[in-house]
What we know:
227 residues; mainly alpha; two-stranded antiparallel sheet; 2 strands; 2% strand
Amino acid sequence: MNNFNNLGESKVTRALLIINIAVFAIMTFTGGSESTANLIRFGAVHKGLIASGQWWRLFTASFIHIGIAHILFNMYFLYQLGPVFERLYGSINFLIIYLLAGIMGNLLTFAFGNVDTISAGASTSLYGMFGLALGVMLNYRGDELLRSFGASFLTVIAINVVYSLLSPSVGILGHLGGLLAGVILSGIFPVVNRSLSTSTQVISILAFVVIMILFIRIGMKSMAVGG
């Protein structure tokens, strides 16, 4: 009940849940959420199509899920984690972080993924929240409350990363990209009622931009070599 009440106060998390579920329902009734053709039609990550100019897939893929188990698992985690981090960062910053983590996760898949792989899912953004937890632990080392909050996620993060590595059906690249994004973004966006040094924010912004450009260049170069 407490989670349900928190969800009522977390407008961005609630909106994200609704959008993800709505997209899944539409896909289910217009060809299926596991149909390769339908996944591509709705905007899943496809390396060749992105390289040809369909960069919007880096955004849309985070709202697409492949099968009922996929969306149930991700929406459960969004339901559990979303309100926590939305309160911690504020609704607007939380939304920006969520979207950017998804984009970086999908970019890492574009950079190093197989050319024929189709990938999608909110887990790129959800791993961004795990990255935020790590970043909070590192950036607020002198604040025992926030340091402990970040450290409380270590076991959950470790279990999820190991699961991603061991499960062949899981897009580990997207997960790691989202995790990396969360760590970096925690140095750009301060926790509500806390502050970050200007140097930390500048370095984090530069790191985020440089890594995004690097992933794009690697992905494009791999397509040129493959072609």
